[in-house]
Amino acid sequence: MTDRVPYMPGPGSGPHLCQFWSTRVDALERHLSANTWALAAVTLLLIAYPIARIMIPVVLNSIVPDVVRTVLNVI
């Protein structure tokens, strides 16, 4: 029988790093005002809207013709 040492994560390990960042994010969330959250949301929407307006038609145009060809071949 061998002696087993319990796992003790070091200071640079993944769980400690996640806990470190989680603590930082929680502190940030507690100290931001509603106006700051609104500004962040508007900024995110201003960035995401043009990307969605460009990417959704590109994806649909690349998928729909394949689907139409497949359906026509089945018929």
Task: Report a brief summary of the structure.
The protein is mainly alpha-helical and 75 residues long.
Structure characterization notes:
- With 75 residues, the chain is mostly helical.
- The protein has a domain at 34-75.
- Helix content is 79%, strand content 0%.
- The chain is built from 2 helices and no strands.
- The chain has helices spanning 14-31, 34-74.
- The longest helix is centred in the C-terminal third of the chain and has 41 residues, at 34-74.
- It starts with 13 loop residues before the first helix and ends with a helix.
- The mean pLDDT is 81.
Bin the helical content.
over 70%
Which H/E pattern describes the elements?
A: HH
What is the strand content?
under 5%
Q: What's the alpha carbon Rg, rounded to whole Å?
A: 25 Å
The quaternary structure here is: single chain
Mean pLDDT: 81
Number of helices: 2
Number of strands: 0
Any idea what the shape is? flat
Largest sheet: none
Any key phrases for this structure?
flat, 79% helix, mainly alpha, 0% strand, 75 residues
Draw up the topology in text.
Blueprint: H1 14-31, H2 34-74
